[in-house]
Amino acid sequence: MPRNIVALSLLLILPWKTQSYVPPRGAPRHNNNDRNPFITAPIHQRYSQSVPSGSERRFDSLLERSGIDKKVSLQEQEQQQESSDLKLGDDNVQDLVLAASLSYLSLDTNSMKTSPYYDEQRLVVLQQINDSISQTGATIFRVAKETETIVVACRGTTNWKNFGTNLQFQLVEARQELLWKRRNDNIDDNTDVNSVETANSPTDQEPFLVHSGFQKASIELWNVLQPALQQILDSYNGGSKTVPRLVFTGHSLGAATALLCAVQYSMSSSGQRNNNNNNDPKIGVSSIITFGGPRLVNNALAQYWQQHCFRQSCDDDYNDDGNGIPLIINLIHSKDPILQQNQPLWDALGFAVVGREMVCASDQPKTFNNETTLDKSVVAFNFWDHCMYLGTFVGPRLFLLL
């Protein structure tokens, strides 16, 4: 059995038991003001994210088109000139990593609202959805700021069923739910999206392939998530409310299901705007920002989504190099053992990157725009590092039975 498959199996078949999080032995504990030992700085502190200055213009455009606000104070601007680093406000990215973390907690047991990460001034829970078949779930949040944002945060691995889903990594042909051609300007709004011809692969020898387990789980989750999300979005159509941004996020397995659910929404009639009608009430996906997400499709399907699903929702979506700026960003870091151990396996099996991978820090809210690959010299072995992103613990509240 290949070494990488053995490593993945060992990481995923370890016995777990759900309960309130208990830090591992030797983990540093913070003062009493930091109720969660994994918070490396107070949640409400204004952070700065550093990106090399050469990427400033490109990253500004990326943030604007992805729905991530850039807020720079005068003091930060002065510091930027002195240090030649781009200083970015962290509001939206921090909201998303908190939403991804909170999605692991149950709303029914009140564990979510008692979490130190929960703050109604930042995130308001609208609804939590659980699928009994795939045993996956998602939480829908509202972010009230200058522009309202609806966040769909898909939950990552929390049970044995999810572990089994992760291990079904063979590539299979994508189902029709992921392949409806995006509505073009010549199709009437009343056209049934099921009647629209589906796109074919670039060549007959290059079919659209997707991770078997993730595809099945996401379609089952979307069957119960879609009605709840649509009801929330319908409240904005034709009313006086500001049309919101719609963002999908998630961590690990939740990153995979978030992307696939966003695809299903975008391919449906609800997510397809008429580009010739500025008054079209349909709400498109603004961005898909995920954390520690696995690779899940082949190159043919990744390119098809970029051309027919997401990139067309941007206005002249190009940077200085003439390359399309994706709406899909997967934040990764080199200490993550799941990513480090499995990238060689993904490469061997033909898995491709969807959108853009961006390196971030595990222990503090920093992103590095010019870094898109993991540092192979880093020895990644601690499972807890898979759950640490931007200084936030994003994962199941579990402990290992020794």
Would you spell out the secondary-structure blueprint of this structure?
Blueprint: H1 3-12, E1 16-18, E2 49-52, H2 56-66, H3 74-83, E3 85-88, H4 91-102, E4 124-130, E5 137-143, E6 149-154, H5 160-167, E7 171-173, E8 209-211, H6 212-234, E9 245-251, H7 253-267, E10 285-291, H8 299-310, E11 328-332, H9 337-349, E12 356-360, E13 367-368, H10 383-386, E14 388-389, E15 392-393, E16 398-400
Parallel strand pairs: 6-9, 9-10, 10-11, 11-12
Antiparallel strand pairs: 1-16, 2-3, 4-5, 5-6, 7-8, 12-13, 14-15
Helix pairs in contact: 1-9, 5-6, 6-7
Protein name: Lipase class 3
Keywords: Signal
Region (Disordered): 24-56
Q: Report how far the terminal alpha carbons are from each other.
A: 26 Å
Mean pLDDT: 71
Uncertain regions: pLDDT < 50 for 5+ in a row?
1-90, 182-204, 274-278, 312-326
CATH structural architecture? 3-Layer(aba) Sandwich
Share in β-strands: 15-25%
In DSSP terms, counting alpha (H) and pi (I) runs of 4 or more, how many helices? 10
**Using only CA atoms, what is the Rg?**
20 Å
Strand order of the largest sheet: 4-5-6-9-10-11-12-13
- What is the total tally of β strands? 16
Shape label? globular
Biggest sheet details:
8 strands, mixed
The helix/strand series, from N terminus to C terminus, equals: HEEHHEHEEEHEEHEHEHEHEEHEEE
What name does CATH use for the topology?
Rossmann fold
Instruction: Supply the CATH class.
Output: Alpha Beta
What's the CATH superfamily, by name?
Answer: Alpha/Beta hydrolase fold, catalytic domain
Structural class: alpha/beta
